[in-house]
Amino acid sequence: MLPVFLTIDTEFSSGMFARGEGRDWQDNFARCLSCETTGGEVGIFYQMDVADRHGLKLVFFVDPMPALVWGIEPIKRVVGPVLDRGHDVQLHLHPEWLAFAQTNPLGTRTGRNLADFTREEQLVLLAWAVERLTAAGAPRPVAFRAGNYGADDNTLHCLGELGIAFDTSFPPGIGRSDCRLSFGSETILPVARHGVTELPIGAIGGRGLRRRHAQLTAMSQWELRSATRHAQRSDWPAFVLVSHSFEMMNRARGTANRIVQTRFERYCAWLAAQPGIETCDFRDAARNARLASTRDHQAARLMPYNPAREIMRIGEQALANALY
């Protein structure tokens, strides 16, 4: 049985806040969380509607850092509905919000990524974020993803100290990212380090030495299905897909991206119909034990590059950019 983690980075926009947009949290929520468009919502509530229709589990990595600016109420507005509908809430963290904090837990220190901070500073930030997330009603998190993938090995040490068993901040499919974890590009399966199990983001092979990461907007429908089948046939311990709360919306235009929306709906329907594949979350104790005991497999291989699949993706993206 292949466990598929459908993960959604669930976050208010600090970029909009910095530009003077979305200073009101309800407006920011409407544009980044519920994603209200002229054709209806395409954010977290819509994502749960689709998942529930097919009996799938979603993992929402929720960033509580906006509580530095607006207090705890906006975080409760995210956490409550997700838990009420039986989906998973885990910890996300964008340090960019420190620049706007009314009271900064690090004094005057700011930065874009967790890796910009010392181990001691990271521990303070992570402990603060755990406390805020649980204050918003979430169970104590057991999994984490750094904003911008911007973690380093100090992050893993801190997660271990806080009892957070899983991290999924390493994207082997992105050649240049903000991630500073010291895993090699061959690390595509779960691996234990510093008392934490790292679940790398899914990936496929590209032209030459290039790769492609498993994100809803980064792969075509064909690539998503093929990558999942490859993971199943290769007996991978898990396959991790990334999305965002706002990924099916063009926030500048206020319109839904129907191509990405259709991709999500069809992929969910396909997943639900596949024998030997199930979506899961980080609170499944039996599966957690399996993942935690998994070691890096040097013989593991990504799905090979296929030019026809790439051409289809480029065509889909060009059409989506033109229309939406």
Summed up:
The chain is an alpha/beta fold and 324 residues long. The chain is 37% helix and 17% strand.
Top CATH class = Alpha Beta
- Unreliable spans are none
As for the number of domains, it is: 1
Helical content stands at 25-40%
Query: Could you tell me the mean pLDDT?
Result: 93
Radius of gyration: 19 Å
For CATH, the homologous superfamily is named as Glycoside hydrolase/deacetylase
Distance between the termini: 37 Å
Count of DSSP H/I helices:
11
Secondary-structure blueprint:
Layout: E1 2-10, H1 14-18, H2 25-32, E2 36-37, E3 40-41, H3 44-54, E4 59-62, H4 67-70, H5 73-84, E5 88-93, H6 119-135, E6 143-146, H7 153-161, E7 166-167, E8 191-193, E9 196-198, E10 203-205, E11 211-213, H8 221-233, E12 239-244, E13 249-250, E14 255-256, H9 258-273, E15 277-279, H10 285-292, H11 307-323
Parallel strand pairs: 1-4, 1-12, 1-15, 4-5, 5-6, 6-7, 7-9
Antiparallel strand pairs: 2-3, 8-9, 10-11, 13-14
Helix pairs in contact: 6-7
General description of the model:
This protein is α/β, with parallel strands linked by helices and 324 residues long. It has one domain (2-323): Alpha-Beta Barrel (TIM Barrel), CATH 3.20.20. Helix content is 37%, strand content 17%. α6 crosses α7 (153-161). The radius of gyration is 19 Å and the shape is globular.
Relevant terms:
single chain, 324 residues, alpha/beta, TIM Barrel, nine-stranded mixed β-sheet, two-stranded antiparallel ribbon, 17% strand, globular
